Amino acid sequence: MRFRELHEQVRCAVSGFLHSFVARHVSEPRLAAACQHLLGRGKLLRPAAVGAAALAFNPDAHPDRYLHTAAAVELVHTFTLIHDDLPEMDDAEMRRGVATVHLEHGQDMALLAGDVLFNLAFTALMDDIEPHNTHSPDIIHVVSYSEGQKLATPRIIDESIRITRLALDLYRGLKTKGDVDELSGHPDVAERMQELIQGASEVLTTIENGFANPYSPHGFYEIFKAGFLPVPQLMGCREEFPEAVRWQTGMRNGRVDIYEDGKIVSPTKRMRFIKEEVLRR
User: Fold this and answer.
1) Are 67 and 14 in contact (CB under 8 A)?
2) Mean pLDDT in the chain?
3) In 3-state terms, what secondary structure has residue 95?
């Protein structure tokens, strides 16, 4: 297959996949619009290069075998474009023939959209572990930077990959037999998701009402100093950030809660404390 033909095939497939993928994972309308703003507008040469590499190793490879990886590469690339265009970086006005994301949707939304696309890239790599899809990739294995630099010899990496493959095979088998719950529609998950959205909304509202320029380096410093991001295990500068180390965190039923004196502190109560006791100083 000529690269031009492959490019057109991959461009159409990845463009359609990206829009449906983001729509499935980003439910907030404004954020979804910011995330989608640049997707599919470029030449998508990087995803095509992924397809070419896959076909070089296996000329009969089905597009589904590399679609998720190709999409992940494009998601990371688009994330870098959004953040590079910000006023603090290149201060660009146009990208891919349209207004840049921060001009169209606001700087705060552009920052958040870039972060979301970066994380969705990893979701795309793992999202295709489907037991009934014969084209689902066999393995996605990630070795951390520290492991790769200091700990992982080729033998250890090979052993780690074998363990990961076995785990994925067992997962597919259990899911096929129905022994693994479909959590996307589970009522407990839906309730927890609603709690998280409501809590995040309260935190963001308090931040945006309490700081003149929260989406800036200085703004982030002030937000961190005020204790919006609890870090009880902070290794250094604890004296500089007493409010940040005030709150304790703990695991409960697979979730992380914030505690004070052994009791869970809700986002509402914590935001009230920050507004009344910290921001008024």
Assistant:
1) yes
2) 80
3) strand
